[in-house]
Amino acid sequence: MRIEYINPFVDAAFNLLKEVLQTDKIQRGDLYLKSVSQSILGVAAIVGLTGDVEGRVLFDMTRETALEVARKMNEPDELAGFDEMAKATINELANMITAHAVTKLHEIGFKFDITPPAIITGQNMEVTNASGVEALIVPAVTPYGKIEINVAIRERA
Known about the structure:
This protein has 157 residues and is α+β, with helices and mostly antiparallel strands. The chain has helices at residues 3-21, 63-73, 84-107, and strands at residues 27-28, 32-34, 37-39, 43-51, 53-61, 112-114, 118-121, 126-128, 135-142, 145-155. The chain contains 3 helices and 10 strands, in the order αβββββααβββββ.
């Protein structure tokens, strides 16, 4: 996995999280790799990538973190719980981050498309990369909890 593919997603995530959460208190945790099969934290927005590369980007967080992020993004409206509006908000966050990253990648000559984000929720759920690519995880620690930016991309053969 080339770092040129990863940095735009990480940069876009940190910049947009600062903007939508209205805080500079977002810290980068230690990078690490996850195996081909991995458990999700409770709520994950997944975006597929196709074109010069194949793979996916996953924005993974606990249900509590997802709800707090959705509440902050929907202010002044109130969210009672992790309902359809909260799910749509997390979906939109993933869409915004991915769109910014793909735009940067297109500017430097990489060509690929994204699928619309999909939300996965639940306990004891697992995501498996059929392509066999390990995922690089970049934790973003926010005032509302940790969001893992989980990138698994490889060049097409």
